[in-house]
Design goal:
The protein is mostly beta strands. The protein has two helices and 43 strands. It is globular and about 85 Å long.
């Protein structure tokens, strides 16, 4: 991960308060409380695509961006909102009903925030000079449009505790922090947040006049101060001192004004102002988590942490806040409770299933449960009392590398870079089969249907030259055979129309041809290998 290191931190420390604009001129329009945009309002014209909407109607979208931070928000007791691509989706975790809504700026969704009253939600988009769209809930009528807050995309937005203000942070190239009077569509204050990626901006839970931003190699503490010339943004960059510089994803403010944040090293830092008060570890100097702490939450008298190691841990808040560290700033703590979220469904090929810890990127507190976003393609629900958990949503982790359609059924098969293959009934909007294999998935092809194969045979290509031949069984994919076709990654596989031949193409330009035994569909006999010495994009 690219960082600017100690040099960048020192450079940031030398700066005085970052120059701001507190008297930004905008049109003096005053919006009424009950004023809305028209139902058919488009902020900018949308260019029709080659697959024109006059010929095709949107039907369904599957999956979610599993490694997106802070992508789960509650709109109501059982209702979530999250972003996927250029859509934002409203999902009921009890009824499993889902509504898909599209962004307006066509570049995708950067961040979503829900108003404290749950009567509004804001969708910050991506694209050229993207906007933030504020919708009323549950009507979903467009209420306000916030313009000119960043150049390319928003990385994080947050409403203040009172709901009167909204903070937004843009991404590369400007990394602009803006404080909005969102009801009047006005920027009150703006400043450059940092010179690298900002993961999160968040208001203090105890007022509208302080907030925190954090991201690549930094954490920054902001105050909105009233001066003789008006409101000013003042900031202090966190000084790591002798501690290792770290990316900061999760943070939480205590009522005393102290701030806790997680690190890449799996420890916690307790900040007093912009200085580290305590470096929090387990006994013996061991880290709290194996890897990055992605989220930190204050819950009752506990500090709750969640990490990429799949653990959620509870620590005593009073002990952390009131105990003095040693001369090296180290404070050793004991965990009150821990639980590791583990997927027990993953296995590949002829290997037995194995347990794989979740890669937690977000946890969200519900009325009697926690929701956990897993980078490996799941959303889990953890019961507060029983501590039992179950997956309520499944999808690919990372890129979907290829797709194949059935010739005679309403079915599609997808293969992910995560090595997971899934079959979907797209008319019922349902996942039918899923199976995890070792290695990175690359491509898939469906054998043309005939009397012998009944349209139930597929070939999947993987990294390192592996090909797996699969049968659609009664309950899931069954592995018929697997073989190493090439010494390079497979980029395309294809069957001949008469089902007697098969070819695998590698990323280095190699083609390996096989004959298929018509009496035994598991038998693939090598015929010849040829080198094209050029990139292969497709096979027909």
């Amino acid at each position: 991960m690219q960082k600017e290191g100690e040099t960048e931190e020192k450079k940031e420390e030398k700066k005085e308060d970052i120059p701001i604009q507190s008297d930004i001129k905008t049109e003096e329009k005053v919006f009424k409380v009950d004023e809305y945009y028209p139902l058919n309002h488009r902020e900018r014209p949308v260019t029709d695509s080659p697959l024109t909407n006059r010929l095709a109607k949107f039907h369904e979208i599957f999956g979610q961006e599993s490694y997106r931070r802070y992508n789960l928000n509650y709109l109501a007791k059982d209702t979530l909102i999250f972003a996927t691509g250029n859509t934002f989706q409203i999902y009921n975790i009890q009824t499993h009903q889902r509504e898909v809504l599209f962004g307006q700026d066509s570049g995708g969704i950067g961040s979503i925030a829900v108003h404290p009253s749950k009567c509004f939600f804001a969708v910050a988009e991506k694209g050229e000079s993207p906007n933030i769209y504020v919708y009323e809930y549950p009507s979903k009528k467009l209420y306000r449009v916030l313009r000119k807050g960043t150049a390319k995309y928003y990385s994080s937005i947050d409403f203040s505790p009172s709901g009167d203000r909204l903070a937004s942070v843009g991404g590369d190239p400007d990394y602009q922090l803006s404080i909005w009077d969102w009801r009047q569509e006005k920027i009150l204050l703006k400043s450059k947040a940092f010179s690298q990626e900002v993961f999160k901006c968040g208001f203090s839970p105890y007022g509208d006049y302080s907030l925190i931003t954090s991201g690549t190699g930094h954490i920054r503490f902001w105050k909105i101060a009233q001066t003789f010339t008006g409101l000013k943004l003042q900031s202090e960059i966190g000084k790591f001192g002798q501690l290792e510089l770290s990316d900061v994803s999760g943070f939480a403010e205590l009522q005393s004004g102290l701030v806790l944040c997680g690190t890449e090293q799996g420890t916690l830092l307790l900040w007093d102002g912009n200085l580290v008060k305590s470096h929090i570890k387990l006994a013996g100097g061991k880290p709290l988590h194996a890897g990055t702490i992605e989220q930190v939450i204050i819950k009752d008298n506990y500090v709750v942490t969640a990490g990429k190691d799949g653990y959620i841990k509870w620590f005593d808040l009073n002990f952390i806040a009131n105990t003095e560290p040693d001369e090296t700033l180290t404070l050793e703590v004991k965990q009150v409770y821990e639980i590791q979220i583990i997927s027990k469904e993953i296995g590949g090929g002829n290997l037995p299933p194995k347990s794989v810890p979740a890669a937690i990127v977000t946890i969200l507190q519900g009325p009697d449960h926690w929701l956990i976003a897993d980078g490996f393609g799941k959303i889990w629900m953890l019961n507060n009392e029983t501590k039992e958990y179950k997956a309520i949503l499944h999808f690919h982790s990372g890129k979907v590398m290829d797709l194949a359609l059935s010739q005679d059924a309403n079915a599609a098969v997808t293969l992910g870079n995560d090595g997971c293959i899934k079959m979907w009934d797209y008319t019922k909007s349902a996942e039918v089969y899923t199976r995890q294999f070792c290695g990175e998935g690359r491509c898939v092809d469906w054998m043309p249907k005939n009397q012998k194969n009944k349209g139930r045979i597929l070939a999947a290509g993987f990294a390192h030259g592996i090909v797996r031949i699969l049968l659609l069984g009664n309950q899931n994919f069954q592995l018929l055979t697997a073989f190493k076709a090439l010494d390079e990654d497979i980029v395309k596989v294809s069957y001949t129309q008469d089902c007697t031949g098969f070819v695998a193409a590698g990323d280095g330009g190699a083609l390996f041809f096989f004959d298929i035994n018509d009496k035994d569909l598991k038998q693939y006999e090598p015929v010849c290998l040829t080198e094209l010495k050029q990139k292969i994009n497709d096979l027909r």
